[in-house]
């Protein structure tokens, strides 16, 4: 069953247990009320996932991709509408071991498909070795996203760890040589949108500056809104066309993580 209309929230939790302690469940239940919740950086193993953590926001269905390494990475998908199929990992041993991908697919009569993905792209900021790993991920993941699109409609939500354009981070001039805003990373995003045919849904319905989803913990970055927009809804055109104008919502009144939740409504 195709689950439209649909409210989708994406959030890098920076630890599911930490975010739960900070009240994310109550906010999801009382204010956001998503139909689908895509989370990243669980930083928890399956054994750590209590019944309460498995039903965030009152969503009773869920699937998780945990990293092999304890306290690292991990993604999850929570849903109101039960999907027809769930996939854990995208078939790349190096990155599947890091817990970076989970998808849920809905199919209706006639075979039309909608695949919803929660993904956590690698960061390259800690070392050149990790930056090279990020480039390997981007190369392989691009082909995966093309294949997904050829099979039906797609909505990918998650922490992409790339600010695409100058409008997407406050201090762009000072970050031209830093991971997350490197020319190669930005070119990858441009190629995904221009050649592979995906849509940056947030930018489609909100072209305004100073819209960020992540802030450094250093100094007063969050208080001064010196941030980056690195959390995305990336969709095929059929899904992107359903995004309701004015519905994009970056919630900053409470702090559950170093990221803010991003919610968009689809008609």
Model description:
It is a single chain. The chain has helices at 16-21, 24-32, 93-96, 128-151, 183-194, 201-205, 237-240; strands at residues 6-12, 36-40, 61-65, 75-79, 85-88, 101-107, 113-120, 153-159, 199-200, 214-215, 227-228, 231-235, 249-250, 262-266. It is 24% helix and 25% strand. The chain is globular, with a radius of gyration of 17 Å. The longest helix has 24 residues, at 128-151. It has 267 residues and is of the alpha+beta class. Strands 3-4-2-1-14-13 form a 6-stranded mixed sheet, with no helix packed on it. The protein has a single domain, classed as Endonuclease/exonuclease/phosphatase (Deoxyribonuclease I, Chain A). β7 (113-120), α4 and β8 (153-159) form a beta-alpha-beta unit.
CATH topology: Deoxyribonuclease I, Chain A
The assigned CATH architecture is 4-Layer Sandwich
Q: Please provide the count of β strands.
A: 14
The biggest beta sheet reads: 6 strands, mixed
Q: In what order do the strands lie side by side in the largest sheet?
A: 3-4-2-1-14-13
Q: What structural category arises from helix and sheet content?
A: alpha+beta
CATH superfamily: Endonuclease/exonuclease/phosphatase
- List low-pLDDT spans: none
Determine the fraction of residues in helical runs and give it as a percent range. 10-25%
Task: Give the ordered list of helices and strands.
Answer: EHHEEEEHEEHEHEHEEEHEE
Quaternary class: single chain
How many domains? 1
Per CATH, the class reads Alpha Beta
